[in-house]
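Figure S7 source data.
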Amino acid sequence: MSLLIYMQHGKRKGGLVPEEDAKVSVFDHGLLYGDGVFEGIRAYAGKVFRHQEHIERLYNSAKAIDLEIPMKKADMIKAVEETVKANKLTDCYIRLLVTRGKGPMGLDPNKCVDPCVVIIATTISMYPEEQYRKGLEIITATTLRNHPAALDPRIKSLNYLNNILAKIEADTAGAFEAIMLNTDGLVAECTGDNIFLVIDGALCTPPGTAGVLKGVTRGVVMELARKQKIEVKEVELSRYDVYTAEECFLTGTGAEIIAVVKVDGRTIGNGKPGPITQKLLKEFRKLTKSGK
Ligand code: PMP
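Tokens for the predicted 4'-deoxy-4'-aminopyridoxal-5'-phosphate complex:
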């Protein structure tokens, strides 16, 4: 079935077009250089989850690469909602991207006119339900996460090659995900998910300064944990901490919360999704069902 895609070129009023007509130029710097930003968002029961937070992150990513999004935040919010509704979707995945736009060959972003806004709302494909019950086996990649001074992982840019290289390593090893270390050799995040460990009963995750995307799900999980009176710490973590943790899980818009039971062949905890992981997943699902 053909989807309706929201497209806008520069400040000219955008709108919904059939998928076949949703086109971006081959001269768009988003395609030529990965020059642009994006968001992955979910809607549950027809409501866009943490909508404002995703929009704020998108505009901050754009600001960090000196890209002016040709729409006000309020209009962007409306356009996302309109796209979900027009496709008659209630539980779905939304991909929102803004490219630098069409320009001549050469890197200069100032020669690009009309950034291009694309909003896709489609059905979500996540890990099979069995993986949520059993937990994942993952690896540590040899590809390091981008150094923040080169390309800050807090920028959700269209250039995902760093993560893709690590994902290739995961695929080759037959694993679903890969932990990426930063240039200090400390744990940063996974290719498309943030990572959490339970150490001495406290929930630990690397801070933004470790070179991680500040995941929206990561933030929600930290809030939920605090409500459950679970101590939450943003701390530097090494592979030692991973291997000796009581529990490990990943968070992301697509994955939501998923337990990790093996890393690099070593068993984490007792090899089953742990109690804190299960509790947080239950609370997370309650929250998304509640439409808040
Ligand atoms: N880290 C990376 C590298 C990601 O691409 C993502 C999003 N897929 C995340 C973490 C999780 O972020 P969020 O919870 O906002 O989806």
